[in-house]
């Protein structure tokens, strides 16, 4: 039994082939609803080995077949048995031929798979992979940035994993700053006292690290949230200033606006709110000042509620909704300012390569939804009822009174003005040939009828968050796929 999926990628075959050769390609092509964790990517399309950790301790091992390799036009991978962890998959034959055919300035991409797995399971996966490939290449082509060396903290987290893979497939080098013993492509980072030469040769710093805010808001948890952000950010910003990097891009959060600002529309010019998280985020952003004072372009990415089955609140909510226990929380009137993971990656990419981006950036959809609407859409996507109000007892027990108020019941109506408003055209960092880049706010924001239509995707495609509430379904359909496989 075999299945074939093909599409046209609007880029020359050389670019498409190079994208597949670079580190991160497997990560970018892995649909978020698919079970498993990538343990190893193939280091060669000709004869490499890839490994995927599946539930129940199973391993999917794929080896590339040199006999099917034609540089620039095709490669083949096959599932093989290696050790006890892969034996349960022995009945599953998998031979995957990847073909690339030049058609003028575009490329026909063909995936041909011989396997007993049915097409109903595979079609959404290949639709997603082809759309992700086309979208990622389009974004890098629009940026026209020369290769950058980017130091990144928090590269193993939800955002860091996606962002690092996106950057490396685009030709950039990501140097992971890690606390433990460094491996290839890594440097050891002591958060409170980073080594003097940590940022030698670095063009841009992306600082994502910080303890999870989820947990009971007792004194120990509050200290962990603050201490993992403010001090390490200041130390890294001081080092960035001394190293003379081009840009310092730091994570931040919409929690800076406070737990509840009613119906006030909060763009980047809005004042900080009140409460523990607002105070922490304000101090966190202020800790980037040493870099800014030294003339380093500095941006703070105020992130909304990230939507991905791989982590964040959607991973927490999905089991409740799947069991038919989901519903409006706390009356359902509070505003939820959300963002799809791939769109957050686009926002970080913009801040990395575009010299026009500095200061706070609200990384959210232009129109937030009420929590009750979010609950309804998630229920519809998962084909589960979502009408019974969720009692506040559960979040209170998990988070405490303060945590429930600042997280579970937070209401922030945030607007992404910095991503939407046009900026004067200037060359992006390291632009090839020094040519001025076109105004690119629409590339990330994708507002307006044309932009929204361009990013409306099939059920297996990349999410569009720039219309709502209908567009809210699109990042959530990944959970529908995940549910059907759970």
Tally the beta strands: 20
Strand content: 15-25%
State the strand order across the main sheet.
1-7-6-5-4-3-2
Outline the low-pLDDT stretches.
425-474, 477-486
Mean pLDDT value = 86
The gross shape turns out to be: globular
The percent range for helix content is 25-40%
- Number of helical stretches of at least 4 residues: 16
Distance between the termini: 24 Å
Structural class: alpha/beta
Instruction: Kindly provide the radius of gyration, computed on alpha-carbon positions and rounded to a whole number of angstroms.
Output: 22 Å
Major β-sheet, in short? 7 strands, antiparallel
Strand and helix map with partners:
Layout: E1 2-9, H1 13-21, H2 25-29, E2 37-40, E3 49-53, E4 59-64, E5 74-80, E6 95-103, E7 106-114, H3 119-143, E8 149-153, H4 158-169, E9 173-178, E10 186-188, E11 204-207, H5 219-227, H6 230-243, E12 247-253, E13 260-266, H7 276-286, H8 289-293, E14 297-303, E15 305-307, H9 312-322, E16 335-336, E17 338-340, H10 341-353, E18 359-363, E19 369-370, H11 371-381, H12 393-408, E20 411-414, H13 417-420, H14 441-445, H15 448-455, H16 473-484
Parallel strand pairs: 8-9, 8-11, 9-10, 11-12, 12-14, 13-20, 14-18, 15-17
Antiparallel strand pairs: 1-7, 2-3, 3-4, 4-5, 5-6, 6-7, 16-19
Helix pairs in contact: 4-10, 6-7
What labels describe this entry?
486 residues, alpha/beta, seven-stranded antiparallel beta sheet, 16 helices, disordered C terminus
